[in-house]
Specification:
- Helix 9 runs antiparallel to helix 10 and helix 10 packs antiparallel against helix 11.
- This protein is α/β, with parallel strands linked by helices.
- Helices cover 40% and strands 21% of the residues.
- Helix 2 links the parallel strand 2 and strand 3.
Length: 288
Amino acid sequence: MIDAVVVAHGQADVVSRAARSIRSAGDMVRSLTIVDTAGDQALADLADDAPLAATVLPCPANPGYGSAANAGVDLGRAPLVLVANADVWVHHGALDELARALDEAPDAACAGPLLLNTDGSPQDSAFAFPGLGQAVSDLLPLPARVRGSRLNGRLWSDGPARDVGYVLGAFMLIRRRALELVGGFSSAYWMYAEEVDLCRRFRDDGWRVLYVPTAHVTHLRAATTSARDIEMLPQLYRSRARWYRRHSARPMASAAIGLMWLGLGLRARLPGSRRQAYAAAQAALNGD
């Protein structure tokens, strides 16, 4: 059985579509909780939708994605937990595929699907843990095909289920026992990199992370944050730097953060509307 948790920040129509797709995915979903981090009355009204049978948990102070997910997870008791963004919809059989993969691998903590764009093309869905290659990608104006390659930690979207470093936090089916043993999502990451941190702690605790590309979920890229992506850029780099400091040896962390610092400084000096955001992101690397 699965307790599903959708973390939402407004956009009630998007949330409703995600919740309905999860409900229609099968009988495995025992409970559905929508964590409302915006205090949106339209989201609160979803609790009155009888067929949806959702609990709406208000968190208007917006504690961050990971902490909001933890609050929703704490309401349930099912052995499996689905944590999802609001900007997804689940294809037929996807939850069954993910649950089957976890059932066949009792030492796996979580499993993630192949994420698709609305036109059916694949998104980056499975990754190696960040290294210097990812930091270099922030320094150089690399072509898109290089940024989306193994050189930048991206793993192939097709093929059989396999072990990976981490899966994207937009849609993760997690074994509750594993999540409880590592202490849930870390509250240190307000936004971005919370799933990278969680999967690293899973691995450090002896668990595996699975990527199951036969499970398909459509994902609207950054539906919640795209309208303010420039504003969120410093938060992205603050979280990346925090991850390196917490999970890499000091020389590696210093090198990676130094490369990001150089790259962001260069971008802050080039013409364009994002110069101030890059400068703010460079300054954010110093925080923790």
